[in-house]
Design brief:
The complex is a heterotrimer of chains A (179), B (376) and C (568). Chain A is α+β, with helices and mostly antiparallel strands and 179 residues long. Chain A has six helices and five strands. In chain A, 27% of the residues lie in helices and 13% in strands. In chain A, strands 2-3-5 form a three-stranded antiparallel sheet. The longest helix of chain A has 14 residues. The radius of gyration of chain A is 28 Å and the shape is elongated. The N and C termini of chain A lie far apart (76 Å). Chain B is an all-alpha fold and 376 residues long. Chain B is built from 15 helices and two strands. Chain B has a two-stranded antiparallel ribbon with strand order 1-2. Classes of the chains: A alpha+beta (179), B mainly alpha (376), C alpha+beta (568).
Chain lengths: 179, 376, 568
């Protein structure tokens, strides 16, 4: 193994007293005192949220107002701290979205457990769960910090959908087979 | 000495204590503010009190400055739960914080704050609680009692981190007291020139600096003394007994609430006394500038700036400004220099400062002797 | 392979360079599986006829070449035979092993075939995985990942087919997902003997349908769901309840008849979601009746006993045990055991009866109609266990007339009923009132209402143990979910009563009960609970060969004698 010996220059007397170094340090800190402050005064002033920020996971609806989640439970499976709990359910035959067949009966995310890793969003085949820019979660009881389905949709709102997979499926079914 | 006299003395003492305590409280605020400014932060800026805090512009300004913060801090110390762990030696555990506080308040009694000329008699008067002739000796003697507080608390806590803190403190204090005393000796050799009445009074030291401040004539002694004061007050970079990172909190790990507050404020009281002594011994006391005294200014301008109440206020103000600067200097250094390792502290003390102090003493003793002979 | 071939009737074939010895005519998929090579397949099922219509199992076949002129083997320079590969691939499921056969399952051609087949199967397959119950145990999913191309070249519109067809009371059909493997059709025709399913239309419009006017409603219909390689057939009971990857399978036994179908109980966090058959070629192959799949509902039934009671008032288990012991000591005692109890419980009950000097020991027989397949006439899973442990020495009767007579005669003062409703077995309310009843059971009934002491026990899903089925096959079941709060393991309750009765220690867990049984009961000699294989072990039941068992012929069981059962 090649060894490179780094030459250390012997310290001068001034350096050995350590005083000049302290003085230069004092100069730096003194200048720092008059520089603009870098902190944000939090509750009044909010930091800018960069795109791709992983905040509170929410459920979203597509622009038609259809709940996107089909309760495939992949997020529940992938969730490392097991924060997600889904009770799957069937969409009744007379519903507008009967062709989707499945939707969550209940969907709970325990924000005391959530670690904001974003795996649920990554794994979701329906792009129904999104980590949005809410970062401040507070509550006075444990129950309050378990977001249920209604709360999740309230937080999530509507998000653009590029695919409209189920809408296409419905239209195809309405057209029927060529045969 | 009659009863009125005693009452007056008592009142003066009370005033001094209140002033010193206020300075300590606001030193804590200064510590927080200065550290946050140095670190690009704002520091305490929310605590407010009714009425005073509600004054339109000023109230907000004071709040942003954190002026009311010490009140909140003090209240917090008062009302927090006072935990005395089961494993401690109760007597010493309670005694230690008191001891930490007392020496600082005792030594302040021999510190002269200023001098003026009595308008009525024309005699020189000193603003001081007790003008004893052995001022510096008393300060050294009483201040060195402060180490007992740390050792006692470390020992009485009956727990490893406080114990280590106590052990470190004792070794460090002994090491640096030596250099500190040796550094001061040439100052008094100079003051006590042959033929003059021998004195260890601080007032005389200040009077001797009417022209040359000792920091100019004895810069090495000044540097050694300031460094030693840092070590004696356990301020960074010498805060071995406390060192949060390796000893959790050092000697006061087991303390909470008001007892912890005593240690906390005691540190600043010691700093204040240290700043006073530095200003007195090497930076001209209440003289505004080297070679310039209030008496000189009075002579040049013809204004009575060294006489009566005005003279006292100006002298004390000058002295206070110097003390405040050194307090700021203490804080400034703390947020600049990282803590030394314990072995480095010992090496600096014994292999750095002590030889320098001794050499300084010998050289100045010879130098002063030669100067005396030449002068005589 | 050595040149000296042992004369065991086996032949040697070569799969991917490995020589394998197998029966002549053996199925290639099975032979490959025996050496750890998986040939992907959808339509092939080991217990059904071969239809060969999914084409997923295509492999390359070859034979050692022979010189046409001389008939001599063609050899390479190093003496190895030259293999002449067939130009086209062949389906492994429809190919029988023949001597010298060479098979390639990983050549480029085979891989291309699989990729092509997968692509065609996926053409019209909907993107339903997120809502499909089969996801996680779907062969199409697995093989698409393994052998598919990973993206779709199909830009046209997929076929539309009915998605919510109700085939029967328990089975739903999603025709879009169907890959036309015809397993379900063959199952209904060959195993269930209820030929109701078939394909209509042609090409990619082929649709699985029920015969007009018929329904898939036989007692084996849910097996079609099990064998469906995709999510086309789904159980209406399990539909959309839980994704399978959360479920933990626990080996268990179907308790509804003495066939003792091997099952798997799928549970998550203490809740059972479904029961599926577990393959045991000696008992139930890969099937089980639909009726046995609903038994898990008894765990969370409304009338489940969850609280011990003394004289109708809630009591702690300890208080109830003390009261029960006190009552039992107050003889004469009649013991009514159950053919639904495990062997271990019956053994402890027998010891308890011995200790109490019980005047009467009975079981209650349940006789139904056997279907000749997996439902036998005896609806108790463990009558033979009671015989082996000595709890009873004759076959039980359906009614407890004998006990009724004794009560009326005042010969019985205390009845210890375990998991049997005495009124259902012919005792009148007046007769129950005459005796002090100690009831150990899982569900409330007329007997528990009348009982002086009620001890809540566990269902078969909440405890471990063994049953002896009609073949005298000792089969074990394991605890799938923890017991409901308030109930205690029957073994603990019986063991505690036994300890109270004898004044000495008694075993209260399965393993220690087995230690005692292995020492005491001849047919169980040398066995321990851990040593019983998951597929069960035949025990010697020849001592009871003369008894008139009620079972008729069923799958893998001939009522004539034990020999037939052992060799089938």
């Amino acid at each position: 193994m090649p060894v490179k010996v780094v030459e250390r220059k012997p310290l001068t007397l001034a350096e050995r007293t350590y005083l000049p170094q302290i003085l230069s340090g004092l100069r730096i800190t003194f200048r720092n005192m008059f520089k603009p402050k870098v902190t944000v005064e939090y509750p009044e002033e909010r930091p800018p949220i960069p795109p791709g920020y992983r905040g509170v996971p929410t459920l979203v609806k597509d622009p038609d107002g259809r709940e996107k989640c089909v309760s495939c439970q992949l997020c529940e499976f992938v969730c490392p701290p097991k924060a997600i709990r889904i009770t799957p359910g069937e969409i009744p035959e007379d519903s507008e979205y009967a062709h989707v067949e499945k939707a969550p009966q209940e969907f709970e995310i325990n924000m005391l457990r959530c670690i904001y890793c974003g795996l649920c969003q990554e794994v979701c085949p329906e792009e129904a769960i999104w980590l949005q820019n809410i970062y401040s979660v507070t509550g006075t009881s444990r129950e309050e910090l378990v977001n249920n389905k209604a709360k999740l949709y309230e937080l999530g709102g509507t998000l653009a959908d590029k695919h409209f997979k189920w809408e296409k499926k419905r239209r195809a079914a309405e057209r029927g087979n060529a045969h | 000495m009659n009863a009125t006299d005693i009452l007056i003395r008592f009142g003066l003492g009370l005033i001094v204590i209140v002033v010193v305590m206020t300075v300590c409280m606001y030193s804590v605020l200064a510590e927080r503010k200065v550290s946050s400014w140095i670190q690009g932060r704002l520091g305490p800026n929310r605590t407010s009190i009714p009425l005073l805090g509600n004054i339109p512009v000023i109230g907000r300004f004071l709040t942003r400055l954190g002026v009311f913060q010490p009140l909140a801090d003090g209240g917090k110390f008062l009302f927090k739960e006072d935990v005395i762990p089961a494993h401690v030696n109760k007597v010493y555990f309670v005694l230690a914080p008191v001891i930490a506080f007392v020496p600082a308040l005792v030594t302040i009694s021999v510190v002269p704050f200023g001098a003026y000329i009595d308008a009525a008699t024309g005699a020189a008067r000193t603003v001081i609680l007790a003008n004893v002739d052995v001022g510096i000796l008393l300060i050294f003697a009483v201040a060195s009692l402060g180490v007992y507080a740390i050792i006692l608390s470390g020992w009485a806590s009956n727990s490893k981190y406080p114990f280590l803190g106590g052990v470190r403190a004792s070794a460090q204090m002994i090491s640096y007291e030596l250099s500190m005393t040796l550094a001061v000796l040439p100052v008094f050799i100079w003051v006590n020139a042959p033929g003059t009445p021998g004195t260890l009074s601080l007032v005389r030291v200040v009077e001797a600096q009417a022209d040359w401040w000792f920091v100019l004539t004895q810069p090495v002694a000044a540097v050694v003394f300031i460094i030693a004061i840092f070590a004696e007050t356990n301020r960074l970079p010498f805060d071995m007994p406390e060192s949060e990172t390796d000893l959790v909190g050092g000697y006061h790990t087991e303390y909470s609430s008001f007892k912890f507050g005593f240690f906390f404020v005691g540190e600043y009281a010691n700093m204040t006394v240290g700043a006073c002594v530095i200003a007195l011994l090497f930076f001209g006391g209440w003289h505004p500038l080297p070679f310039v005294t209030w008496g000189d200014i009075a002579a040049w301008t013809g204004l009575p700036v060294n006489v009566g109440a005005l003279g006292a206020v100006l002298a004390v103000g000058t002295f206070a400004a110097k003390v405040l600067f050194f307090l700021f200097f203490f804080i400034w250094v703390r947020w600049t220099v990282p803590r030394f390792r314990y072995d480095q502290v010992m090496r600096i003390g014994w292999r750095g400062l002590l030889p320098v102090a001794i050499a300084n003493l010998v050289i100045y003793a010879i130098l002063i002797a030669l100067l005396e002979r030449a002068g005589a | 392979m050595s040149d000296a071939k042992p004369d065991d009737g086996l032949i040697s074939i070569n799969i991917d360079g490995q020589e394998v010895r197998c029966q002549p005519g053996a199925n290639i998929i099975e032979v490959a599986a025996s050496i750890g090579i998986e040939i992907p397949h959808y339509c092939y099922h080991p217990k059904l006829s071969v239809s060969g219509n999914c084409r997923m199992c295509l492999v390359q076949l070859g034979l050692p070449g022979k010189d046409r002129a001389t008939g001599q083997p063609m050899l390479n320079a190093d003496g190895t035979p030259i293999i002449q590969w067939f130009p086209g691939p062949a389906i492994a499921c429809g190919t029988k092993a023949s001597p010298g056969m060479h098979i390639r399952t990983d050549s480029d051609m085979v891989k291309q075939c699989r990729e092509g087949v997968t692509e065609f199967l996926l053409l019209n397959h909907p993107l339903d995985c997120p809502i499909c119950d089969q996801a996680g145990e779907c062969r199409l999913q697995e093989f698409s990942a393994e052998h598919g191309r990973g993206y779709s070249r199909f830009t046209e519109e997929k076929n539309v087919k009915p998605k919510r067809t109700v085939l029967g009371p328990r089975v739903m059909l999603d025709d879009e997902r169907c890959i036309l493997c015809s397993r379900c059709i063959r199952f209904c025709r060959e195993i269930a003997k209820d030929d109701v399913l078939g394909f209509t239309d042609r090409g990619s419009y082929t649709t699985l349908t029920c015969y007009p006017g018929r329904q898939l409603e036989n007692n084996y219909s849910l097996n079609t769901v099990d064998i469906c390689p995709v999510g086309a057939l789904t159980s209406r009971d399990f539909r959309f309840k839980m994704r399978v990857w959360f479920l933990k399978p626990t080996p268990s036994i179907d308790t509804e008849t003495s066939v003792g179908c091997n099952t798997e109980v799928w549970s998550r966090e203490g809740k059972i979601y479904r029961i599926t058959p577990r393959r045991n070629d000696e008992v139930n192959d890969t099937w089980m009746p639909d009726s046995g799949r609903e038994l898990y509902k008894q765990v969370e039934a409304e009338n489940r006993l969850k609280q011990a009671a003394v004289a109708g008032q809630p009591a702690s288990i300890e208080e109830a045990l003390a009261a029960a012991s006190k009552n039992l000591a107050d003889g004469p005692v009649a013991i009514v055991g159950s053919g639904r109890c495990s062997v271990e419980e019956q053994y402890l009950l027998k010891k308890l009866a011995d200790a109490l000097g019980a005047a009467s020991r009975q079981l209650v027989s349940r006789i139904g109609e056997g279907d000749g397949l997996l439902v036998s006439a005896d609806r108790n899973p463990n009558v033979r266990g009671a015989l082996l442990t000595g709890l009873i020495d004759d076959l039980p009767k359906q009614r407890l007339d004998d006990l009724a007579a004794r009560i009326d005669a005042g010969e019985v003062r205390t009845i210890f009923a375990v998991n049997e409703d005495l009124t259902a077995a012919g005792l009148s309310a007046e007769q129950l009132a005459k005796a002090t009843i100690v009831y150990l059971g899982t569900h409330a009934n007329a007997t528990s209402e009348a009982a002086a002491v009620v001890l809540p026990g566990l269902t078969v899903f909440e405890k471990s143990g063994t049953f002896v089925n009609q073949q005298f096959r000792l089969q074990k079941f394991h605890r799938a979910v923890p017991g409901v709060p308030g109930a205690r393991d029957d073994l603990f309750l019986l063991g505690s009563l036994l300890a109270n009765a004898t004044g000495s220690q008694a075993p209260t867990v399965v393993a220690s009960v087995w230690e005692a049984m292995a020492a005491e009961i001849g047919p169980f000699k040398g066995l321990s609970f851990a040593a019983i294989p998951d597929t069960g072990v035949l025990v010697d039941g020849s001592a009871f060969a003369g008894l008139p068992f009620v079972e008729g012929k069923s799958l893998h069981y001939e009522p004539a004698g034990m020999e037939a059962a052992a060799t089938s």
